[in-house]
Amino acid sequence: HRGWIEVVAGSMFSGKTEELIRRLNRAKIARQRVEIFKPALDTRYHEHDVVSHNATSIRSTPVQLPEEILLLASGCDVVGIDEAQFFDHSLVDVCNQLANQGTRVIVAGLDMDYTGKPFGPMPALMAVAEFVTKVNAVCVCCGEVAAYSFRIAASEAQVLLGETDSYEARCRPCFQAGMQEK
Ligand code: ADP
Ligand code: MG
Question: Active-site positions?
């Protein structure tokens, strides 16, 4: 078996989870053994489901640390990881180990935080991946291609779980305009 790493990166509402679910469902159709993991802190929806903003879902296992994925993923053909930006840097080693063992690893996550800075282990994952797909949302201000997650809420914490009440997808000019108003 040959393993590799695929990364699906982009802003909020760009369809990362949708794309992850699509790839995993196709692997399931091919009768491959599939497991999905997400960081335990992401509890916006149901505890055990990876849920997309378009409301499709797939069962997942919440884990505290990337190392737990190594133990739980033994015997899997394909491992999906959602919201990867919330894990620490050890996720890079874990993904490499899985791929080296012959596992297909599909990682989805935010490439930038709400200030436009690279988010957690995502840049390193994009560097070591064989395949990187960048997906985009639609700017809520002007309808152009949106690569940024603009925070409407006042908090300055890097991690603020939320939905359309706290964030909106914006293109570069509309993101910059919004940051200057803050
Ligand atoms: P992600 O995991 O990247 O946050 P999801 O897969 O959860 O994205 O959700 C993508 C879906 O979000 C789209 O199919 C669409 O229905 C919805 N959506 C809501 N707001 C937007 C927006 N501004 N641009 C694009 N899609 C949006
Ligand atoms: Mg998502």
Answer: 83
